[in-house]
Amino acid sequence: MKVVNQEQIEKWDLEDPLASKRLAFSLPDNIVYLDGNSLGAMPSGAKLRAKTVLDEQWGNDLITSWNKHHWIDLPLTVGNKIAPLIGAASGQVVCCDSTSINLFKVLSSAMALQKSRSVVLSLAGNFPTDLYMVEGLASVLGEDACHLKLVDESALENALNVDVAVLMLTQVDFRSGRLLNMQRLTQLAHEHGILVIWDLAHSAGALPIELDACEVDFAVGCGYKYLNGGPGAPAFLYVAQRHHNNVTQPLKGWMGHKHPFAFSAGYEQANDISQYLCGTPNVISMSILDAALDVFSDVSMYALREKSVALSELFITLVEGNSSLSELHLVSPRDAKLRGSQLAFRHEHAHAICQALIHYGVIADFRAPDILRFGFTPLYLRYQDMLKSTDILAKIIRQKIYQHPQFNLQQKVT
Amino acid sequence: MKVVNQEQIEKWDLEDPLASKRLAFSLPDNIVYLDGNSLGAMPSGAKLRAKTVLDEQWGNDLITSWNKHHWIDLPLTVGNKIAPLIGAASGQVVCCDSTSINLFKVLSSAMALQKSRSVVLSLAGNFPTDLYMVEGLASVLGEDACHLKLVDESALENALNVDVAVLMLTQVDFRSGRLLNMQRLTQLAHEHGILVIWDLAHSAGALPIELDACEVDFAVGCGYKYLNGGPGAPAFLYVAQRHHNNVTQPLKGWMGHKHPFAFSAGYEQANDISQYLCGTPNVISMSILDAALDVFSDVSMYALREKSVALSELFITLVEGNSSLSELHLVSPRDAKLRGSQLAFRHEHAHAICQALIHYGVIADFRAPDILRFGFTPLYLRYQDMLKSTDILAKIIRQKIYQHPQFNLQQKVT
Lengths: 414, 414
Fold this sequence. Notes:
2 copies of one chain form a homodimer. Chain A is of the alpha/beta class and 414 residues long. Chain A has 2 domains: 6-43 and 300-407, Aspartate Aminotransferase, domain 1, CATH 3.90.1150; 70-296, Type I PLP-dependent aspartate aminotransferase-like (Major domain) (Aspartate Aminotransferase, domain 2, 3-Layer(aba) Sandwich), CATH 3.40.640. In chain A, 34% of the residues lie in helices and 14% in strands. The first copy, chain A, contains 12 helices and 15 strands. In chain A, strand 5, helix 6 and strand 6 (147-151) form a beta-alpha-beta unit. The two termini of chain A are 34 Å apart. The mean pLDDT of chain A is 96.
């Protein structure tokens, strides 16, 4: 068991090359925020941008802002700003709609490219909305043309065969934080002629991703978690350049038209990534996300990952070193190379403990039925926050504070 | 030809029962804004709400705001606030996604209810994205199961027959402002067993709508035009209560699940209107729309319509009374009962005239190839604005100011 003391932890904070990034966020006082994997904290630049978009753009320049302030370009501007964070060359990422809807688009595209195959393979524990969207697509294509097959991770590689049209995986599991091997799984899938869709909801902005280098076909991701774009921020999608001339998708809104302002009666899809746009872009939210992404402009995703691992390793060390916390069972892989930027622990009273943590200023997350989730956002978390939060957690469990009725309320929301 | 003088116009403004509503908006000085049909002006309450959502909610209360500030309820809260504006009883309207995507959902529902029919009937001049979404749905259902038939308005009633599954119409035409008879067309369609979808993009918030009384089946609409929800605001959809237990739609995101936070692997659709939700709601934009709708809380849609008609009639009178404006050809119906809250005029140099109008502080709108559009939002427009804008328009045309090279730039955006 490693021993860490307060002095050591303070030293790490002093030497942290990302320490100054905390100043780019507007954080409440005396709160340790370990839920950036559900909703990222607010960058001060995002708040300023919201004011500009409202006062100067919408309020003053009104409709002329579509050109004057480049509103019409936002989906591609923001997409191209996300691209380097996920290892994508420019022109392959677009910001729009929600993760679920973007998944429907790329799933439709992938299935249309795989006419002779019908199986969408995924993991049983994948985030439910991803699985539901396959059900949704199957409901229009018909079960013969599209059906979902779920396996456990141990059975995944053996399930890759010529019946499978699409392998749809979430890179980091929302519950356990398990990080899948994107390169290996994409390559294995391709060897069987399978197209691959990665959901980056819990990885984009949290760790280095190499979509182009891994030859991924399609990806989707979320703007409001590690990208800090604000509650319900627009999502994004990636389609590899090599597919742009061969794909189609059914949500054929006017913004995906080759010439949206020709107002022609027939749909002619754009031949670049903007063919994945549908309705009018959500300017206010997309502008806020655009500004939030500026926090990443001088951040190496490798340096970010290094700190993310150091934070979570420290958290585990502190939990393991505290006998009051022996009731917590680590659900996440113990090997940091196999984890995203979060930790999950099982406890019978996880929900009540989570409520008590929030009460004492440590914002964590609960996932049914018995999972306590802690997300580590290296941009605004300090090593001292790991000490403070585990101390409070230990007190809540040791003194059984979670048994108080006030901590046994209804579930909260991601 | 009626004659109106400045004194008469000033008197109308003084006597206008909606005059004080202008104070609820944050409008730029010295601008006449005749483009609320593209992007509504900013209500001051919306701006304040944005500040609260950012500073107090996202910034301070972070993830806990989903419950504490009722973020999770926003789609239904906002839907129920829109409902009375469109003649819908509570529980039938939900705010989400974009108009295009919502149209895809209700089109899918309607086609699934009409298994033995395949035609979606619409008007040739309908807003293109509506037609594109039918193409998109046909691309997954197959042309045998779904195909679009377009007719001119004169042929519409005769085209209603037992082959038609769905009649999909926009209540107010985006170009001409032509207002269709919702009650008559819905009733005629029903007589042939046809389900009806109305797109309210150019009518919601502009005139009284009676969805329930007209027994409409489905409707969609836009949050950023006459509802003043901000650029790219979330849209809404309506599904009549009588269909709630029989419908399905393919965009089966977790927010449409009966128990989203059970995180179960199989989709079980909610049995109320929330079955039409998909991904995580866009909290910031939806909150802004929520606040914007408060402007309507004490407004009678009949009083609003009365002023809308009076404004547009005055505008026509002023155009017709000015010999410099004889080059403008009214494309909208001359009878106010057949128009929405906008006027369209044809002119060979419409685009350049529109640019010149903007330069001189009159924000109007151009629609290819040769249409000048003027939208009349009774909440913030005055009778004197009709005089000012037609005076400037007359000067631009009389002096051929539009011929200046600076007014011959690229097209603007709705």
